[in-house]
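Give me the fold.
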Amino acid sequence: MGNGLDTIELGSQVTELWMTPRQTTTPRHIIVHGGNDGEFYYEGKASNGRPDSAYFGEGMTRFTFWFDTPRVLVLPSTVEEIKLAADMDDDLKGEHRSLRRRPQGLEGMDAYRDGHEERWLQHGGPL
């Protein structure tokens, strides 16, 4: 588009990330490699629509979505709380895919990470 960020990518020690677009553009892809008891808060309607994808690594624990959710949402095994707005449109609640990662060290996790996480990071596409 040329009028905003396409991807935001953060490291592995995130404590909080708040995004409040309110009729401004929002990144199409959100990547947080991990957190330190991390919180993600998203409120508002973006002028370019809701994000296509959001990936959150281990250590992110709390998530709040008012109004919109990303179309593809990958959550870590460390999730403790997810809040969705009570007045969120039902079609938005149902029009996304949520994937929850298995804890590291479980059978298949290394193969999953090697085969898919790199593709996600390079292309911002679904796993």
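The first strand starts at residue 7 and ends at 10.
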